[in-house]
Amino acid sequence: MRYTQAPPTRAASAVYVTLAAQVLSLAALVIFEQARGRRLAAQLAEFGGRPHGADAEAVVGAVTVFAVLMMLVAGTTIAAGAAYVTWLVRARQLNDRSAPTGPVAAAWLIPGVNLLAPVVLVDQVWRGARPPAGQRARWLALLAGWWLSWLATLAMIMIRLPLDSSAGDLTGVGVLELGCAAVAAVLCGGTVRELTRLQRASRSPNAIRSATFRVFLSLIHL
Known about the structure:
- The protein is built from seven helices and no strands.
- By secondary structure, the protein is mainly α.
- It is elongated.
């Protein structure tokens, strides 16, 4: 019989909040890029990256805003990653209290491995929660959608933007990157919600009584 430990609903809520904060901060950066980025990049290039004198007053405020937005994006991204890893560790340990935390960290941090291992771990947790029959196809569609959109976001930010040096913007991040990141965040939240709901349902009083009854019947037939 499985443990009656409570599902990690608070950890799941932290994932939702930090993902929303990440998308909002990225949206603010994109808006700034669209409204001011190209002109600010041209001004900084003209000043050699070090505006001084009267010219500095025209750009120092915009540079400060840009720096704050970059820190917000970085901070919310780190927070979302930490919240997600915390949730995944607790979800794994809900299925198996002895499950180590090392594989989760390794799945996300080892280059190359982190392109596939995290989604495999999440699927293992889902299967370990013993879902009702007939939900496998729906779950795989949700899981694949999240992971593909996440990989597409990484590809655009890590590969496409550095290669596109003709844009003349500060970072090059635009509406396309924001849209892809937003889709990835929504689908990621969807997988967390689905798995948390499944674990909560499997540990409801009725489910626990049913599991206990099945164990009792199996003992009788021994």
